[in-house]
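The step that takes the researchers longest sounds almost clerical: writing a folded protein down as plain text. Below is the pair of lines this work produces for a single protein:

——
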Amino acid sequence: MIDSHTHSKYSKHAIGDIEEVVLSAIENGIKILTITDHAPFPIDENNRLLEDELQSYFDDISYVQHKYSKDITILKGLEVDFLPEYLPYIKKLVANIEVDFLIGSIHFIFLNEKRVNVWDIEVLSNKQLIVQYFSYLKELIESNLFDSIGHPDSLLRGGIDDKVYSEYFYSLIPLMKSHNISYELNASGLRKSTFDIKNKIKRKGIWNFPSKLLVSVLNQNNISFTIGSDSHTPNDVSLGIQEVLRVVHQLGVKEISYYKNRKNCKIDINDCINKE
């Protein structure tokens, strides 16, 4: 089994050191694990790695790679925030690091000079905000800096209809193909609340993302998929991955990708699903 999106205490809003993340992964049957703490970024600096912590972060990953090499494959990654106006900063950052995997994620959307976070689920159905989000996604893909788009369908937490979200995304599919970027199947949607637009309340236990409709269309267009728990505690490593794998398998997905030395490595999805 693969988990290509995990966080440690280096992300500040997550808990557990890197070794604890690895031990949880081994216990839960993960064979290929990528550590992807939040990269330095000028916004929300207290919830991510600082630039002067990067070497320590990479050293810690190297340590567990050696220590647990017989039990698990551990890869170095980062989840990098994307905003178009910070593109020069991002380019400089990634040019000076060596990792296996880079996730490009949008956590912040600026609308009328006001910042909206993707976890502000009560306002995610705003049409202007959706248009702005997809404008950012287009530039993220065009930057050609990333291997996979992190939780691209997180807007679905706002109660947006899957069909509406997917129709916005369709025009980006040719761009994804030309830039050879993967789409992340982020399993954290299974444990996060969804905003009920009609009743103005948050609900748990509703499948919000990954987008089932879009995954099916992407698969038909030969877009590759990475998968991750997006764990922020060792207890959440691998959580939800098996359920997502089974659902996307039913949608026709035959392979899951992970990245090593920034190269797309594909595994038969049947080899990732637990046989029970």
